[in-house]
Design brief:
11 helices; 0% strand
Length: 174
């Protein structure tokens, strides 16, 4: 708890001593601390600081980071992607989205990046691309959708929903 309260001060001092940290495990730990500071800064809308911590965290990763420190690398990339969206830097968001899409081990690992990209596309009024990306994400998770929907498909869906809702009260839906 005390580390979380003082994360900015701790990370500042550790980053100042970075040239003296030779142990790869300690560098990865510092990358994790920079990620924590970046998340706290982002949550406080201190986007320039968050970006600085994320770049420092990226610089501490090895060339084989996706293989050696997968979870940390994925988290740093997801935060970069989201921060790119939040700051209007769509090029950066796209670059990190593409890295996640090509390196993520499972479709679940891509969900946060898909979510960020879909929100970004929606916010920039690229609704067709947002819908197509959403369908792509759902397909990667095993869900399928018909290309053309007939009245029978709609009726079948309504019957299924009605069947699933048959014993639900309005309070159950809230």
């Amino acid at each position: 708890a005390q580390v979380a309260e003082n994360i900015f001060e701790i990370v500042y001092h550790l980053n100042q001593a970075l040239d003296r940290i030779d142990d790869p495990r300690e560098r990865i730990t510092l990358a994790g601390h920079n990620l924590t500071a970046a998340i706290q800064a982002k949550n406080s809308s201190a986007y320039p600081s968050a970006r600085k911590y994320l770049y420092k965290a990226m610089g501490l990763l090895t060339e084989n980071c996706w293989a050696e420190n997968y979870d940390l690398t994925l988290a740093i990339h997801n935060e970069h992607c989201e921060l790119g969206y939040l700051t209007g830097d769509h090029e950066t968001a796209g670059r990190y989205f593409n890295a996640i899409a090509s390196h993520a081990k499972t479709p679940i690992d891509k969900v946060k990046a898909y979510e960020t990209r879909i929100i970004m596309l929606s916010a920039s009024n690229q609704l067709t691309q947002a819908i197509m990306l959403g369908i792509e994400a759902l397909k990667s998770l095993g869900m399928t959708f018909p290309q053309k929907v007939s009245k029978i498909d709609i009726f079948r869906g309504l019957v299924q929903v009605g069947w699933l809702m048959r014993k639900k009260s309005p309070d159950d839906l809230v």
